Amino acid sequence: MNSKLQQIEAYVFDLFHQDSSGHDFHHMKRVANMAKKIAETEKANPFVVEAAGWLHDIGDKKLFSNPEAEKQKLHQFLVSLELSEQLIHEIDMAIRDVSFSKGRQPETIEGKIVQDADRMDAIGAIGIARTFAYGGSIGSLIHSDDETKGTSVQHFYDKLLLLKDLMHTSTAKSIAGQRHRVMQSFLDQFYDEWNTY
Ligand code: NI
């Protein structure tokens, strides 16, 4: 199984190593590793969890100009690894669970784990760095005194500070608390500096 995961890693490297929007190869690597760690204390298929962690952003509409074609290519790649149809189906389900995050609960434990791992990478110090990288990539302001603007700082209140309470697994819940505090102290310091002059 390991060599299949190595091939998956190489496939992901090709697709994401030049990304500068916070969805780079290292995001995929951290999500795969975090998902693997969370899965240690859950009844889940560890191969499906790790593979879906690596692959979860493939076909994301904000990252690919032709998401459907990218998903088909991924399917062909998984077939070429000679994974069973059942395994491919389970990986697909887990990825779909993550991308359906808005207003829909994941149906599979593997999907819940990968969603927790993806959300974990959106908070804490890495989450802060990724927020501003992504904001820059879509032309958002860092911050504005006009609260109606969709700034990167506003994104903390709209989404990131809510994530610790949305984690599914106990492992993720226990890690998320500390990362949440890192964001809060970052924002405190940010406003101190913003308001000084
Ligand atoms: Ni992601």
UniProtKB/TrEMBL annotation:
InterPro entries: HD/PDEase_dom, HD_domain. Residues 24-123 form the HD domain. SUPFAM superfamilies: HD-domain/PDEase-like. It holds the Pfam family HD. CDD domains: HDc. It comes from the Bacteria. This is HD domain-containing protein.
